[in-house]
Every structure is written in structure tokens, then in C-alpha cells.
Amino acid sequence: MQQSVFAKYVLPFFQWYALMIVLAIIIDYFLHRYHLIVVGRYLGYLGTFVVILSFIYSLRKRQLIRSGSPKELLLLHEYMAWVGSVMILVHAGIHFNAILPWLAILMLLIAVASGLIGKFLLKKSHDALKEKKQDLMNKGITEAEAEKNLFLDSITVDLMRKWRAVHLPITLLLGVLVLIHIITIVMFSK
After folding, report:
1. pTM for this structure?
2. H or E stretch at 15
3. Quick one: 37 exposed, middle or buried, by C-beta within 10 A (0-12, 13-18, 19+)?
């Protein structure tokens, strides 16, 4: 029996996103419970470093570095950005004292969501399209007829491929907000 599209493609997206937020809340709870709040401050630095390291994939993709498998570096990017985001969320905690960090956290959540969309929905929809085409061809339909039958699905997948046009500016805005946050912390800390 085939899984529904929701169970196969959408649910994993929501599970990873929810796990990130729940894990950050749990870690933050235990840090507060055991009076280790200062650890949260350092998780911000570490999380930012881990997220920056995850961009090795982007450097490889743009051929600014030559070593490493793009597929393995993409997987590393996905997991390092997710883990770094958990650390940054713990760093942010539940504090309502400044708008800039909250804007940065909001952009972080949006950037992670758009990254997960790329990870789960785009790849899976492309695979599903190929699978549908193959099924139609196995039923005796020519490749041209299969492509004609899947025209709207193909357009949808092509539009979804443009998700990077959203993900990259969001990530850039996140970087700018983080940089401003760091600069203001350095300038106004005593």
C-alpha cells in the first residue's frame, strides 16, 4: 500500500521542524532548572559557528572549494544547520527584552523552514514525478504522452525548484541581522 503524499512528504517536514523547536525548549528548560543559564550564551556562539561551517556546501557548489562530495556536503549542511539552529534557539531562550534578536530568531525559523521545504518537499516531489512518469510508461503510454499527462505536475516541480530564490535572500537577511546583533552586543556590553 502506498503512503499518502502528506505522510510521505509533508509530515517529515513538520516532524523535523517541531523536533527542532521542542528540543530547544527542553534543553533551555534543563539549563534553567540546573542554573546553567550561562551555557545558553555560549550555545549562541557555537550554534552560529556550526551554521557558518555548514556553508561549506555552498562554497563547494559554487566551486570556490574543490574537495568534498556535493551530495555528502549537502547532507552535512542540512544537519549542521539544523543542529546549529537548535543551539541558537536555546541561546535565544524566552526573553522579551530586545527586538533585534527576535527578528533574527524569526528569520532563523523561516530560513530553517525554507531549507526543510527544499530537503523534503522539492526532492520528494521530483522523485514522485519521475515515479509517476515511469508508472505511466510501464502501462504502455509513450514518453511524450506521459509528459503531456504530467504537464501540470512538471510545472509545479519546476516552480518548486525556484525555492532557492526564496531561501537564499532569507538566509542573507538572517546573516545581516545576526551580524547587527553581534555588533550591538559588542558595542553595548559592559
Report:
1. 0.79
2. helix 11-33
3. exposed
Residues in the chain: 190
Grid cell 542554573 — which residue?
Answer: 35
Evaluate whether 111 touches 176 at the Cβ level (below 8 Å): no
Domain boundaries, the chain: 10-94, 115-190
> pLDDT tens digit string along 9-20?
678 888 999 999
Cell reading at 177: 541581522
The answer to whether 84 and 47 have CB atoms below 8 angstroms apart is yes
Cα separation, 101 vs 82, in Å, equals 18
Torsion of CA 72, 75, 76, 81, to 10 degrees: 160
Please, are residues 88 and 105 in contact by the beta-carbon 8 Å criterion? yes
For residue 141, what is its C-alpha cell? Answer: 503510454
